[in-house]
């Protein structure tokens, strides 16, 4: 039996504890899903495209500066048509992707690690605030995780002499489902090379799979990526997420230090424990090298290095949500590091079990400490407050950051107040213009704010207060606020200096 092969392990107490962790996480993910939080700014803009376009329209460049894989968009449209007028419908596939990823990862961890260390790896993934957040977000990042775990799982099955058809098919579909498919599939191809370099078995299938993946990606690139109209704006938006190319200059090393934080803090969000994870990662790599598990290095360590190289070439940014797919692989290496460290310290089975269980408990405690269910910009709560408190002739001034989510709920039939809505414009760097907009209004006005930039919300409230206009009513939700003002007709030149 190969070292990396997926196998059924004995049904001991630790295995049952792993299953308990897994099903606890699944239960919490379902609770998070049905809590039905509001859409936040970025996912609302993608959701508007999905709602307003048909299937053919989703094959074309999206509006509102949005980009997403073609198959992801088509699946989201199917779910929305099946359950219309519901933001929950658009969250079904991201949730499903997370659930399948968690189940597959638990199998991978139990095949790669002794049970007492596998529980630590599974806890790092299942009780992961970053993965949890994107499991309920209308964005493609959970699809990235699904592709990475599926390819890893099927690759390990392939080494166990399972039929390779599913591995090849998963890669082909993954090209249309995930933007990180080229990284994952390249690493998988290298894994297959190392696993079969000695025996030479499966050489034909390996070439068939590799050529199918390469051909599919070239087709996808020339049809959907090349000459994409958002490239310039995306390059500008992600300008600080590209590794400087010159290692002789300080920005190169500054970026690498920041990238270390992105991997160990951004992916796991465990505060000071993230430093321990970074330390455990090094003996994990050492263990892989010592045991000559080069295939495992390709699947779980190499993707981040390739991703960094692509960022240096300014082909793909290096940011937490864009490397989310790497979290399961990093968790495997960290758990291997814990095993190697305790082996070097000559710790017995009981000590190693206590250490792994103890760290797992710390992860769960810190997960709860960050708040659950996860909320981002609860504009629905703000809108509901306006509905309860508003009068017939009131009006709403919609801060531009609140516009995408408000428009989505307006278009999908959410119960909104029947008031006149004045859409504010974006005035970053020139906040006095917000006062110019408000100066044209008079009477009872609800100022609805979500996704505020810098101190613009404070500026608006303080500037009105300087004119003697104070809120008659205030409501604060997570990431969203409502202020009721009785506005006089203000002259633009009276704006705050």
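Sequence proposed for the structure above (497 residues):
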């Amino acid at each position: 039996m190969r070292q990396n092969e997926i196998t059924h392990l004995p049904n001991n107490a630790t295995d049952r504890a792993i299953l308990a962790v897994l099903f606890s996480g699944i239960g919490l993910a379902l609770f998070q899903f049905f809590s039905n939080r509001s859409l936040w700014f970025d996912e609302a803009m993608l959701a508007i495209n999905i709602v307003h376009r048909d299937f053919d329209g989703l094959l074309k460049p999206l509006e509102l500066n949005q980009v997403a894989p073609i198959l992801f968009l088509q699946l989201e449209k199917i779910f929305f048509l099946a359950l219309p007028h519901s933001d929950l419908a658009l969250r079904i596939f991201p949730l499903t992707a997370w659930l399948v990823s968690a189940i597959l990862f638990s199998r991978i961890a139990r095949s790669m690690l002794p049970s007492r260390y596998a529980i630590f790896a599974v806890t790092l993934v299942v009780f992961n605030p970053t993965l949890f957040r994107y499991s309920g977000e209308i964005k493609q990042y959970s699809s990235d995780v699904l592709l990475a775990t599926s390819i890893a799982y099927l690759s390990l099955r392939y080494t166990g002499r399972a039929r390779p058809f599913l591995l090849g098919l998963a890669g082909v579909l993954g090209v249309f489902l995930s933007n990180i498919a080229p990284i994952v599939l390249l690493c998988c191809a290298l894994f297959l090379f190392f696993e079969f370099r000695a025996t030479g078995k499966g050489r034909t299938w390996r070439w068939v799979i590799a050529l199918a993946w390469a051909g599919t990606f070239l087709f996808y690139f020339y049809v959907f990526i090349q000459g994409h109209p958002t490239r310039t704006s995306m390059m500008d938006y992600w300008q600080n997420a590209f590794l400087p190319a010159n290692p002789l200059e300080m920005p190169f090393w500054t970026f690498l230090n920041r990238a270390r934080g992105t991997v160990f803090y951004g992916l796991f969000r465990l505060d000071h424990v993230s430093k321990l994870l970074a330390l455990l990662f090094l003996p994990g790599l050492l263990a892989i090298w010592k045991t000559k598990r080069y295939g495992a290095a390709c699947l779980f360590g190499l993707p981040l290095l390739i991703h960094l190289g692509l960022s240096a070439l300014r082909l793909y940014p290096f940011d937490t949500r864009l490397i989310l797919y790497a979290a399961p692989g990093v968790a495997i290496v960290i758990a291997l590091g814990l095993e190697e460290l305790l082996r070097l310290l000559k710790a017995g089975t009981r000590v190693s079990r206590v250490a792994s269980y103890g760290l797992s408990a710390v992860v769960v405690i810190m997960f709860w400490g960050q708040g659950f269910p996860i909320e981002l910009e609860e504009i629905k709560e703000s809108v509901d407050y306006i509905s309860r408190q508003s009068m017939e002739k009131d009006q709403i001034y919609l801060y531009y950051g609140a516009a995408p989510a408000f428009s989505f709920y307006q278009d999908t039939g959410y119960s909104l107040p029947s008031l006149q809505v004045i859409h504010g414009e974006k005035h970053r760097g020139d906040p006095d213009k917000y006062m110019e907009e408000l100066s044209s209004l008079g009477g009872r006005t609800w100022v609805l704010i979500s996704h505020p930039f810098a101190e613009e919300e404070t500026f608006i409230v303080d500037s009105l207060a300087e004119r003697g206009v104070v809120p008659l009513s205030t409501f604060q939700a997570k990431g969203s606020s409502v202020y009721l003002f009785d506005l006089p007709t203000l002259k633009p030149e009276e704006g705050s200096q």
